[in-house]
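Posting for a labmate who doesn't have an account.
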Amino acid sequence: MGLVTRKLGDVVILDVRGDLVASSIDEVAIRQHVKAGLETGIKHWIVNFAAVTFMDSSGFGELLSSFISTRNAGGQLKLENIPAKVRVVFKITGLEGVFEIFDQEEAAVRSFFETRPPGK
């Protein structure tokens, strides 16, 4: 399990590797990375799931906590490249409707800077 942090312009991408489960939460520390970044003014976050093989309720808690902290600080946290096996759990729990989820990194990054019509 691990976490690699990359930056593309004003967007920080967190590449999560392995299982996102209770025993690995301290090792990955998505919440800690996001909190530290928010304190320095980083507002645009993407969590890349391309190398995630499994996720339990602790992993979902870590994501939700990071999502709420980011939103409360005026930022956005989005997800990308969620494998089908993990995506099913997002769908079943209803969290697919909470997070903006992208299949391609380019689309996820671009979404932070697109203007949307009022009311959308």
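Reply:
Got it, the structure tokens are right above this. The chain has a mean pLDDT of 90.
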